[in-house]
Structure formats: structure tokens, C-alpha cells
Amino acid sequence: MRVSLNKIALIEKLLFHANALSPEEKALFETYSILDPDFEQEIAQQRITIDCIQRLGRKALRREIKDVYNELFHPHAKNTLKSKISSLFRN
């Protein structure tokens, strides 16, 4: 179990901070590349996973911003709050 966690940590460091790999980590990466035929596929899967997580986070943020916008600027929203916020951007 520990080996797989170390491998995942190495892959994440490779994907996010490839220039920061220590000589030992570079050697470990090369060793995995030689000995583990599935290592390249694991890297690709980790990259896809990270990309999906980032996209989902962006979608959630967009949804949250849209909800706040609708709450503030919906026709039924309190006009005083709407006018206060609008005045901030007019000046």
C-alpha cells in the first residue's frame, strides 16, 4: 500500500513540479518507467483525474457565482442592496 501512495505522490510532483524533482526522485521515476509497464498509463490517468477535478471545481464556482448574482440582481431582489452594489461600480 505504501509503495502505491509513494508512486502517486511522485506522479503528482512530476505533473505539478517537474523541475523540482530531486535526483533521487528522478532515479525513482526512471526505475518505475523501466520496471513497471503500466507506469506511463498511471501518469496519464492521474493527469486526467486532476483535469476532471479542476473542471468540476470551476463548474461549481461558476454555479455559485451565478446563484449569488441571481440572488442579488433578480427582479425580486431587494432594490436597496442592488442599488448599493450598482453604485459601487458607477463611481
Can you walk me through this structure?
This protein is mainly α. It is 82% helix and 0% strand. It is built from 4 helices and no strands. Helix 1 crosses helix 3. The longest helix has 35 residues. It is elongated, with a radius of gyration of 23 Å. The mean pLDDT is 84.
Features:
mainly alpha, 91 residues, single chain, 82% helix
Brief overview, please?
With 91 residues, the protein is an all-alpha fold. Helices cover 82% and strands 0% of the residues.
Summarize the topology.
Blueprint: H1 2-16, H2 23-35, H3 39-73, H4 79-90
Helix pairs in contact: 1-3
Largest sheet: none
Q: Indicate the mean pLDDT.
A: 84
Overall shape = elongated
Class of secondary structure makeup: mainly alpha
Structure summary, number of beta strands = 0
Give Rg in angstroms. 23 Å
Q: What is the helix fraction of residues, given as a range?
A: over 70%
* Low-confidence parts: none
List the total number of helices.
4
Alpha carbon gap, first and last residue? 59 Å
Question: Proportion of β residues?
Answer: under 5%
Q: What sequence of helices (H) and strands (E) makes up the elements? A: HHHH
